[in-house]
Amino acid sequence: MAWVGLLRHGQSTGNVAREEAESDGREVIDIAERDADVPLTPLGEEQAEAAGEWLARSPVDLVVASPYRRAAETARIALAAARQQGAPVPREPVIDERLRDRELGVLDLLTTRGVRERWPDELRRKQRLGKFYYRPPGGESWADVVLRVRPLLRELHADAAGKRVLFVAHEMTVFTLRYLLEGVPEPELLRAASRTEVANGSITGWSAEPDGRYRLTEEQETVHLHATATEPTEDDDAAASLT
């Protein structure tokens, strides 16, 4: 692939509910839907439209999205906005379940306080194993996410050679792609994650180098949000920040 990008989904109702629960010191996040069905907020829809402005200036050949509603909606809104400006972009995203957000198992819907109060042994196990390899019961580790995204990249290297490909997915996916495309080692990756804010609706991109590796060229870019007077938000996804 000539270029690979990641558009993080727009702000979701789950992002807002999580921030409120953490701020209020609650143990449980109040979300009625399952994680896959959490929708965008009105602001999230605006952020997706602003991403369409970016796509209109930098068209891509293929868009592959997470099946989770917040990501799939972001992809469709962004593509529609780009097409309205005459951009040669795909009509619909390709949906691939390998781009879904990381699964948290028994820690799902728990805040940082909730994990500490209800699963202290798991917190100690995570501290011993490290964030990259820790797998909550019934859930996934960062390494598990890498293992399902790696074959997707291999398929695209063959099927989309020389093309510009945009993923529309989750905060976690940014760090997964840094690990796979740049070869960032685990310790450096976790340091980068601890200091990196991946805004809703932001674009991260990598360009192919002659040696077959990829170079980071767009780093959580939000210029298109500011250009359209759209408020950027840095609401964490639980899968990337909680564990």
TrEMBL record:
GO BP terms in the entry: glycolytic process
SMART domains found in the cross-reference section: PGAM
Upper classification of the organism: Bacteria, Bacillati, Actinomycetota, Actinomycetes, Pseudonocardiales
Protein known as: phosphoglycerate mutase (2,3-diphosphoglycerate-dependent)
Keyword Isomerase (UniProt): yes
Keywords: Glycolysis, Isomerase
Record-stated family: Belongs to the phosphoglycerate mutase family. BPG-dependent PGAM subfamily.
Record-linked InterPro entries: His_Pase_superF_clade-1, His_PPase_superfam, PG/BPGM_mutase_AS, Phosphogly_mut1
The keyword Isomerase appears for this protein: yes
One example GO MF annotation: phosphoglycerate mutase activity
Record-listed substrate binding positions: 70
Organism encoding this protein: Amycolatopsis sacchari
Annotated EC: 5.4.2.11
Enzyme class, first EC level, given as a word: isomerase
